[in-house]
Specification:
Elements (H helix, E strand, L loop, with lengths): L1 E6 L2 E6 L29 E2 L4 H6 L11 E2 L28 H19 L4 E2 L2 E2 L1 E4 L4 E4 L2 E3 L4 H22 L2 H6 L1 H18 L2 H9 L4 H30 L1 H9 L6 H21 L2 H6 L2 H6 L8 E4 L1 H4 L11 H6 L10 H4 L20 H12 L7 E4 L1 H6 L7 H22 L4 E7 L6 E2 L5 E11 L5 E2 L1 E4 L4 E5 L5 E2 L4 E10 L8 E10 L2 E11 L13
Antiparallel strand pairs: 1-2, 2-3, 2-4, 5-6, 7-8, 8-9, 10-11, 12-14, 13-14, 14-19, 15-18, 16-20, 17-19, 20-21
Helix pairs in contact: 2-5, 3-17, 5-7, 7-8, 7-9
């Protein structure tokens, strides 16, 4: 809870201990209790925000002093836009530290997998292919067709449930450590900026500098590299849709033969160039729905990147020769208000205001704060992975009923998907009565039915197929030559099934047909065999 008091043209913000960790904080939220007019309790802590407040804050100020907040600077607007709605460019300081090194190694591994994925083959199939046009999907070398809709639906439910479980337990760790957009932005494009234009301060100076030859060369080199990388990323995405072989044909064949492919190649390149050169961190705020989605799942027990206000408040600048005992005696915490956590944030937020929508758990603020704590000889972890209850009560990750429910659902979906994959056949078979065809009685007394057989080969190899009757004795004849289904193709033919009236139990007898390939049973299909009403048990004398 927090309270505001308005008087003499200034706004005074007083916060309770819980206000330092606000899950609902958003860029458009105003300070709560603005209109309450209630007198804040004396136990409330007082915190000042904004550049003017920071400039006047001193270490000698008593903890009970009322400190003013600049209302115009309070975060009631996006970090990437000013009060008029104009774009406000962020220049985050180059991060360094333990978490940043770990993220770098993880990012390079994931980016290698991302760019190598279309060219890796498992059983002759790509690692991942999402061909929406041809309705062909490949996951880990396994081909899935529209006939596998149930598997696809269960897989999507499993994926969404996994996100819910992981987010409920660990917040947006996915964003900071594995999201392709953030990995490319922070580990590739941002590093190009640091290399060509320098750190945050140098970038600001360069932006305001007149257009000299030096500035033109740096900006041109940066954007040429951005465009080239966007071209590579766009082609990689396209190869996940149409396949690497088709992509090579588009590149090597005359342009007029692949106009559609070239069009999408150009569109994808421009799309990624716009994201990484102009839109940047705004993509996480405006486009990605996960930031909103996670706000419904995060609670007091979720592990997030959090500021330990219990240890950090009251904030005060560190003065020369000031000891820890003196700070504690004056009522001040470990936070020296250096704003290094804000300077390195790629989305421009102040983590000390609590968990916010833009926070992607990149851990840059953790590294920055840990570095400052080392210099002033204070323990690390003022900003760390923690939960609200962990900061307030010292509790570890708690298994809540909601987390148990999500996990149970996740396990059930996982088992269901495993069963579907284990029972999935390489060939999808459909056996239907030929339209308009009636049963026929052969000269020897046998009754025949004509069927249409459709087989879908889900693999990258030819599959020879043999059909055998399972539950009834009879003869099955495939029209034409031996049935061989081409790889990743649909085969159609006609099938004639002949049965003796002795084995028929009614005029519509249930029939089971086994589908074999090289002596191995692939699947069993069911159909209906039509016969005269007086056949079978009604005419046992017929041979």
């Amino acid at each position: 809870m927090s309270a505001l008091r308005i008087g003499c043209g200034s706004v005074v913000l007083r916060e309770t201990r819980g206000s330092g960790f606000n899950h609902s904080a958003s860029p458009m939220s105003a300070p709560p209790d603005l209109e309450s007019g209630s007198r804040p309790p004396s136990a409330m802590r007082e915190t000042r925000y904004g550049p003017e407040a920071r400039a006047t804050q001193t270490g000698s100020e008593p903890p009970s002093a009322m400190r003013e907040v600049n209302w115009d600077d309070f975060r009631d607007h996006l970090t990437t836009a000013d009060q008029e709605g104009h774009r406000q460019w962020l220049y985050p300081k180059k991060p360094q530290g333990t978490f940043y090194r770990a993220r770098t190694y993880v990012s390079y591994l994931l980016l290698f997998i991302l760019f190598a994925g279309p060219f890796v083959r498992i059983n002759g199939n790509p690692l991942l292919l999402v061909n929406i046009v041809e309705r062909k999907f490949v996951v880990l070398g396994q081909i899935f067709w529209p006939q596998d809709t149930v598997i696809f639906a269960v897989g999507m439910l499993l994926y969404l449930t996994g996100i819910a479980v992981f987010t409920a337990a660990f917040g947006r760790v996915w964003c900071g450590w594995t999201c392709p957009q953030i990995l490319l932005m922070e580990m590739v494009f941002r590093k190009i900026e640091y290399f060509l234009e320098g750190d945050a301060h140098e970038q600001r100076v360069l932006r305001k500098a007149p257009w000299t030859a030096r500035k033109i060369i740096k900006k041109a080199a940066k954007h040429l590299l951005f465009f080239g990388l966007s071209f590579v990323i766009g082609n990689t995405l396209l190869s996940y849709i149409i396949g690497s072989e088709q992509l090579f044909r588009i590149i090597t064949d005359p342009p007029r033969e692949h106009l559609h492919g070239l069009t999408f190649m150009i569109l994808f390149t421009l799309l990624f160039y716009g994201i990484f050169a102009r839109f940047r961190e705004q993509a996480c705020t405006f486009i990605c729905p996960y930031g909103r989605f996670q706000s419904t799942l995060v609670d007091e027990n979720t592990i997030v990147v959090a500021y330990d206000y219990q240890r950090g408040e009251q904030r005060s600048h560190l003065h020369r020769d000031q000891t820890t005992h003196q700070r504690r005696a004056g009522g001040y915490g470990d936070c020296i208000d250096c704003f290094q956590c804000v300077a390195v944030c790629p989305t421009g937020i102040d983590i000390r205001h609590g968990t916010q929508m833009e926070c992607v758990h990149c851990t840059a603020c953790i590294d920055a704060c840990d570095g400052v704590m080392q210099k002033i000889h204070r323990p690390k972890g003022l900003i760390r992975y923690a939960s609200l209850n962990g900061i307030e009560r010292g509790e570890r990750l708690k298994v809540t009923p909601r987390l148990v429910g999500y996990s149970t659902l996740l396990l059930a979906l996982g088992v269901w998907l495993a069963v579907l994959l284990a029972t999935r056949s390489d060939v999808e078979t459909t056996l239907l009565r030929a339209p308009g065809a009636l049963y026929q009685q052969m000269p020897d007394g046998r009754i025949s039915n004509l069927y249409l057989l459709k087989l879908v080969n889900k693999t990258a190899r030819e599959i020879p197929v043999q059909l055998k009757l399972r539950n009834l004795a009879g003869r099955i004849t495939v029209m034409g030559r031996n049935l061989v289904v081409p790889p990743e193709k649909l085969a159609e033919t006609s099938v004639l099934i002949e049965l003796s009236p002795k084995v028929l139990t009614s005029h519509k007898t249930k029939l089971q047909v086994d589908v074999y390939s090289n002596g191995r049973l692939l699947e069993t299909i069911k159909t209906i065999f039509s016969s005269p009403r007086d056949s079978g048990v009604l005419r046992p004398e017929v041979k």
